[in-house]
Amino acid sequence: MNKFHGTGVALVTPFNADGTVDYPGLKNLINHLVEGKVEYLVSLGTTGEASTLNKSDKKKIWEFTAEINDGRLPLVAGIGGNDTAELAQSIKDFEVSGYDAILSASPYYNKPTQEGIYQHYKAVSEASALPVFLYNVPGRTGSNVSPETTCRLANDFKNIIGTKEASGSFDQFNQILRDKPADFMLISGDDPVAMPMIALGAVGVISVVGNALPQQLSDMIRLCLNGDFKAAAPLHLDLIEFTRLIFAEGNPGGVKAALKQLGICDDYVRLPLVQVSENLRKAIIAETSRITA
């Protein structure tokens, strides 16, 4: 599974002013990331505003992404939900052609127990014809996937091959790394801590920053994976202010402002999200211009 070592990018979904999907913008973005030498793409994760897309939208976006990618990079589909039965059916119905794995966020809002989380992912594992990545993001879901549950799932289901960890807890990362099967992948779900997580033993990042700055980010991640943290450190530090700015008013409004500045796609989002404030937009434009000059 080395194809998932390095930089994965959680693709934004470009929109037109009327809220429809901007497919030319999505094509531009995919080509931008391929040219930026990232390792793989994630379609319709949180950054892709999947929660405001209907089933028809999602099907078209997945198909279009696979068509434009044309086998150039591994593809991961973000398929999550808080109704386990409905999610399992969606995974069974998913057209897997062109895709290499599924990323599935822990159920949101319900706040299940650890046993509930385990049974949910058991159903996901049994429904999926593709390898599965867990996704732990307690700041969005309202519940944490404990290290014990993560490692229990990793040991019990061979097609659960890794976890995107966005808990921000290094105590949790340490426990997972200590107790997981040898080939189970820990992946950073937060751009700012990707470097220290790799120093502990993570195999890369699924990034938001990489939408706009794929070359800069993937260069840094590869240096980290090669153990050259001295060379990686200046690249990491150079991205700190950009990273802070693009998350200042939530995701993906910030990174879409950067993508607009780069001429990749526009910065429209779907309600309840809104575009970033004018002052923040100016700061993002200035920082994007500085880094890409």
From TrEMBL:
Organism the protein comes from: Pedobacter gandavensis
Protein name per its UniProtKB record: 4-hydroxy-tetrahydrodipicolinate synthase
NCBIfam families (UniProt xref): dapA
Reactions mediated catalytically: L-aspartate 4-semialdehyde + pyruvate = (2S,4S)-4-hydroxy-2,3,4,5-tetrahydrodipicolinate + H2O + H(+)
Chain positions of site Part of a proton relay during catalysis: T46, Y109
Entries under Gene3D superfamilies matching the protein: Aldolase class I
MF term (GO), any: 4-hydroxy-tetrahydrodipicolinate synthase activity
Domain of life from the UniProt record: Bacteria
Alphabetical keyword list: Amino-acid biosynthesis, Cytoplasm, Diaminopimelate biosynthesis, Lyase, Lysine biosynthesis, Schiff base
Binding locations of pyruvate: T47, I206
Quaternary structure, from the entry: Homotetramer; dimer of dimers.
Active site feature: Y135, K164
Signal peptide: none
